Amino acid sequence: MAFYSTNEFKSGLKIMLDGDPYNIIENEFVKPGKGQAFNRVKVRNLKTGRVIDKTFKSGEKVEAADVMDTNMQYLYHDGEYWHFMDETTYEQVQADEMAVGDQTQWLKEQDVCKVILWNGSPIGIEPPNFVHLTVAETEPGVRGDTAQGGVKPATLETGAMVRVPLFIEIGDVLKIDTRTGEYVSRAKDE
Amino acid sequence: MNWRPDASIAMLRMRAVWLKQIRAFFDARGVLEVGTPILAPTTVTDPHIESLKSRFRHRDYYLQTSPEFYMKRLLAAGSGPIYQISRVFRDDGPGRLHNPEFTLLEWYRPGFDQFQLIQEVSGLLAQLCGPGPTAQDIEIVSYQDLFVKYTGIDPLEEDKAALLSWCNAAGHEHPIDEKDSWHTALDWVLSMVIQPQMKGLCFIKDYPAGQAALAKMNPEDPRIARRFELYVDGIEIANGFEELTDAEEQRQRFEKDNELRRLYGQEPIPIDEQFLMALEHGVPETSGVALGLDRLLLWKSGVHSIRETMVFGWQE
Fold first, then answer.
1. I need a labelling partner for B229 at 20 to 30 A (CA). Which of A54, A172, B137, B296 fits?
2. Which residue(s) pair with A173 in the sheet?
3. To probe the interface with B, which of A30, A38, A42 has the most B CB atoms within 10 Å?
């Protein structure tokens, strides 16, 4: 088993706490001039996404989490699992609903996503920052109104709901920022 | 990689102005500026302070963590009041408030008690930081009252179990276990619970005897030492003592530190015999204080990290 000393703590380091893998977001060294040193860290539970604060005595050892970020192509959803493939080894993994979470709304077959693997199994998915998705449903477009004005809801091919400009039509391909869930542009206008 | 300095040009100017003001402040008070070695054959024994080591002709030398021992040897030699602006080194951090190399302003006032020195520290702060706290605004609180105020636990009468059960009840998740000392538990509560809530300029006095470091004990109350610290908005800025001048007691504290070092698996430190000889010869009754200039610059300028007050911050 690998261990990290608190001296090695930095943001991005993956550690085990109470049986769950965590990602260090912030690490602060805290020490009274004449006393015991501590590390105060902000960590994110990689399974639940929950962020907690924790302190360690400096010099303590903490188990390393075997967590790897791998770029994988999204293949298909079989009703229960989402399947991904490593493009270099062709190795496939299946992610469950817990791992995919809300990100399912941005998953389009053949897009390359970041899959977070813990002990070889997916615990999280990060879709590309920008995806191109087709509008499945929206109210009829208002012609000529490409400059400004209001917005309306649209449902995309993956089921995602986004707010789009009034001129958008069913069948348009849209560029979406998955980090904010916001419409960026029409793909054909890029 | 970035070749630029971590300090802004405005920060360089502020530093330079402060150095001038500090020299003028002490000059006006008849305190002599001195310079003592940074690299020396021995160093502090405190198990919580780790020195950086260097080598000279196959022998170990230490980068000084404070110029304290040398300055007390000057006092014993009859220097009178002295100050030093010194680069010091500690093997810890780095962090927002820690740079392994930093600037200490350290000074000694023969004949002063800790309260006279607290007044002088406040005077210097007013000089450097502009119209600020007047003598009436300075808060001086005892370590005991501070803990009672924030936790309800009396650090001189109660114990680790009481403090930890308070932590648990108050929802403060702590890393203290059965192997940790009472003082480690107190350090944790001070650093993690109390300091973040402290506002303004505050001197903490009457540290528990177990945290005396190089301070004299209080003869009227053996539970406490004549040690004080200055905090500004919860940031530790300065540490001062009515200095221990008893050579025998000093030797015992060195030996006790080294025992603890062996216990924790740290290297023992060769005892500074020349310093003990100076104490035997006789150091005048004195108070002394060390003040972290970089942190005070951080606080005054409002920058986020100590790096931005250094010309070039620590490089990994």
1. A54
2. A134
3. A30
pLDDT at B262 over 90: yes
Q: In the predicted model, is pLDDT for residue A35 greater than 60?
A: yes
Other C-beta atoms closer than 10 Å to the C-beta of A109 total 11
Closest CA to A32 of B33, B143, B165, B310: B143
Q: Residue B295 to residues A100, B26, B188: CA-CA distances in angstroms?
A: 45, 20, 21
Mean pLDDT, all residues of chain B = 95
DSSP 8-state code for residue A173: E
Q: How far is CA B306 from CA A50, A91, B6, B179, in A?
A: 30, 47, 9, 33
Task: Check CB contact under 8 Å for A35 and B211.
Answer: yes
| Nearest alpha carbon to residue A39 among B166, B261, B95 | B95
Asked if residue B56 has pLDDT above 60, the reply is yes
Confidence class for position B293, pLDDT limits 50, 70, 90 = very high
Percent of chain A beyond pLDDT 90? 85
* Whether A35 and B183 lie within 8 Å, measured CB to CB: yes
Size of interface A-B (CB pairs under 8 A): 67
Segment A129-142, tens digit of pLDDT: 999 999 999 988 76
Structure letter (DSSP) for residue B38:
S
Six token digits for residue A188: 């054909």
Strand, helix or coil for residue B156: coil
User: Which pLDDT score, from 0 to 100, does residue B231 have?
Assistant: 96
Distance CA A110, CA A72 (A): 9
pLDDT band at A1 (very low <50, low <70, confident <90, very high): confident
State how far the alpha carbon of B189 is from the alpha carbons of A36, A154, B60, B113, B176, in Å. Answer: 11, 53, 36, 29, 10
Contact A57 B95 (CB under 8 A): no
| Measured distance CA(B33)–CA(B83) in Å, rounded | 5
Q: Which one of B44, B45, B46, B48 would you mutate to disrupt binding with A, by most A Cβ within 10 Å of its Cβ?
A: B48
Task: Decide if the complex's ipTM is over 0.90.
Answer: yes
**Closest by CA position to B287, among listed B102, B139, B82:** B82
Judging by DSSP bridges, how do beta strands A112-118 and A121-126 pair with one another? antiparallel
Distance CA B70, CA B87 (A): 14
Sheet holding B59-63, edge to edge: B39-40, B59-63, B53-56
* Beta bridge pairs of residue A154: A138, A162
Name chain B contacts of A33, Cβ cutoff 8 Å.
Answer: 229, 236, 239
